[in-house]
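haha ok so turns out i had the wrong file open the whole time. this is the CORRECT one, sorry everyone. sequence first:
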Amino acid sequence: MKERKQPWYGILLGLTILFTFCALLTLVPMKASKLCKLGYYAHCSYTPISTIICLSLALVTCKIRAKYFLKKD
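then structure:
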């Protein structure tokens, strides 16, 4: 019989992908009003801090998925 994954697994996977994408998006250079802490005009003027926050949130959602939804043989 095929095992069906719980809906929270998909939600957490989507959040992990979203947070990772947002972390990468904060590093993209573009025309902004202020310099970021790294010294260039990035998509987000709080670039190193916002990138770390987004990556931390992605890590947390990934750890939750691994702890509660992945089988350990």
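The CA atoms of residues 35 and 41 lie 5 Å apart.
again sry for the mixup
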